[in-house]
Amino acid sequence: xxxxxxxxxxxxxxxxxxxxxxxxxxxxxxxxxxxxxxxxxxxxxxxxxxxxxxxxxxxxxxxxxxxxxxxxxxxxxxxxxxxxxxxxxxxxxxxxxxxxxxxxxxxxxxxxxxxxxxxxxxxxxxxxxxxxxxxxxxxxxxxxxxxxxxxxxxxxxxxxxxxxxxxxxxxxxxxxxxxxxxxxxxxxxxxxxxxxxxxxxxxxxxxxxxxxxxxxxxxxxxxxxxxxxxxxxxxxxxxxxxxxxxxxxxxxxxxxxxxxxxxxxxxxxxxxxxxxxxxxxxxxxxxxxxxxxxxxxxxxxxxxxxxxxxxxxxxxxxxxxxxxxxxxxxxxxxxxxxxxxxxxxxxxxxxxxxxxxxxxxxxxxxxxxxxxxxxxxxxxxxxxxxxxxxxxxxxxxxxxxxxxxxxxxxxxxxxxxxxxxxxxxxxxxxxxxxxxxxxxxxxxxxxxxxxxxxxxxxxxxxxxxxxxxxxxxxxxxxxxxxxxxxxxxxxxxxxxxxxxxxxxxxxxxxxxxxxxxxxxxxxxxxxxxxxxxxxxxxxxxxxxxxxxxxxxxx
Length: 554
What we know:
Layout (H helix, E strand, L loop, with lengths): L10 H10 L4 E3 L2 H10 L4 E6 L13 E5 L12 E3 L7 H15 L4 E11 L2 E10 L3 H10 L1 E2 L4 H6 L9 E6 L11 E5 L4 E5 L4 H18 L2 E11 L5 E4 L6 H6 L13 E5 L2 E5 L4 E4 L3 E5 L13 E5 L2 E4 L5 E4 L9 E5 L8 E2 L4 E6 L7 E4 L2 H9 L2 E2 L17 E2 L11 H13 L3 E6 L2 E2 L6 E2 L2 H13 L4 E3 L6 E4 L2 H5 L3 H5 L6 H25 L8 H14 L3
Parallel strand pairs: 1-5, 3-17, 4-9, 6-8, 8-10, 12-22, 22-26
Antiparallel strand pairs: 2-3, 5-6, 5-7, 9-10, 11-12, 11-13, 11-14, 14-15, 15-21, 16-20, 17-20, 18-19, 23-26, 23-30, 24-25, 27-28, 29-30
Helix pairs in contact: 1-3, 2-4, 8-9, 13-14
């Protein structure tokens, strides 16, 4: 068996695990959850058939169900509290958790079992406890991961034994506390348990579960990856790391790269959101069998809807023929979502270690593509990954969406120390994985930006995998290289639009400022939190000094 029974070793685990065994709680099935969700007051039962419902032991007539969450349609990061960082507030939060569980257990509760991980090298048993009134979210959780049924249970029985307890997720969206109007999430990653209180959005349950799985993977000498990974033909896999809205899913899931692939260059997708790289066994392992994707590009009656299992925060309309159809394209609200099958393209649950990884950055000081020639700089650029947050994905002030943010390795769900991720990625690069940076947003100075279209990004990935790009040193950014034959591969005006110039003082100052932003961020991690090493700051300092010498020659 993968995970094993272990006596709770923290009060957090004792509280959360104990809640599962109350008289008010019963184990449930996907079939029961579907029936409850159909009757859930705020749920909409559409006329769209659910994709292959039989795999979840649901009736063949099952439909795509829509749940809408009110005013909050994204994750609320400010609700998160890590047990290891609570300090003197520990007793306060422990008391709140105890009260939350007491009040929860006085209502009917449901317990769903599932698995996380799609390879016998890493499979984890997981448990979700929620009220009966949250059946739709529980159904979606079972679909997103894998419910406790065949074929997943057969694979689990053959999986490698891990010295870890099961994942336990307690979620009560009906909890409220005036001191926490945005909800409260308590995470004890050392004991693989989490409490999600006062939050309706399904993504909180998904990412909370993944947070624990990623952390377990790191303890097993794996690399925790919030990104997408795919293969093209017989080439080594390529992995993309980026926040929602960075192009991660578009680049991962594209079957033809905007028509740039040849007939024999077959795409195989592993996953577009969550995976682990096993550094000892040369595996890349998907954690979920389904995809949780945005629906902003899904048009009315889109053929892709035939692959949908479920949807959240999208509109509906009743047609004259009596059919109830969903309305996407983010017309109702930002960040509409769906759960859909990977059957929409050729897919596998795992592959070998990536030969290339790409940091997707929305940093306008960077051109569309760079190659990183230094392993320490490769880690530094990942640890200081700069981007813009996707509209609506996070429950934040709209003004914050316009600001460039640094999100290390594009993983806002990391709860282990950042330096651990840095060390794991360095191991990956030392094993021969190459590192690239792609800016998928726009290039240039504020006020005079040149857009970087998705079609260009897709063609860049094609040529990366073919190995057809020739490289030259970027004189102004030590450790980075630029395409030498960009015009030949990507259009005659590639260099005109995207070639950084040493003759523009304004641009060099802008590039230097962005370098300094990265240095400051990582230095603060080192000085204020003790969570960074000079090894991963020095390459950026060196790059800044090179620009200083260009701007102020001796």
